[in-house]
Write a structure and sequence with these properties.
With about 130 residues, the protein is mainly beta. It contains one helix and eight strands, in the order αββββββββ. Bound molecules: zinc ion.
Length: about 130
């Protein structure tokens, strides 16, 4: 069964993020008061409660913190998806799909990098392993 993707439906708190994706940027929010990065977006800074923030583009570099293999609950799945929790170089964690690697080869600490790919007609940030020979 082919993967189906539910398109993002941006709300006020994360519209900036999806706007960044259209420019191949992974945007994070930095609190204007305590200067800490936070993700996922929320109305207030989770550290100090401020509602003032600005965005900055993440490097897109990170390492695998944890992952699961997502399979369709009832139907045969021709392409199981790897859903990964990435420790971004900036110090926040990010959930996305991991592509370009077999589930058995994923390891904690694996170096990954964001790419922007159209999946099921939807442009999404995805991660791929960083090629050692690069
Ligand atoms: Zn803050």
């Amino acid at each position: 069964m082919a993967a189906s993707v539910v398109p993002p439906s941006p709300v006020r708190d994360d519209a900036f993020f999806w706007e960044g994706v259209t420019r191949s940027q992974l945007l994070l929010r930095r609190c204007a008061q305590c200067e800490r990065l936070h993700h996922p977006p929320s109305p207030m800074c989770p550290h100090c409660g401020s509602v003032e923030w600005r965005t900055e583009a993440a490097s897109g570099e990170g390492t695998v913190h944890s992952w699961i293999v997502s399979a369709h609950p009832t139907e045969p799945d021709d392409s199981p998806r790897i859903v990964v929790l990435v420790d971004l170089a900036e110090g926040v964690r990010f959930v996305a799909n991991l592509a370009g690697i077999a589930p058995a080869d994923v390891t904690v600490g694996l170096a990954v990098r964001v790419t922007f790919e159209t999946v099921g007609g939807v442009l999404l940030p995805q991660f791929r392993p960083v090629e050692v020979a690069e």
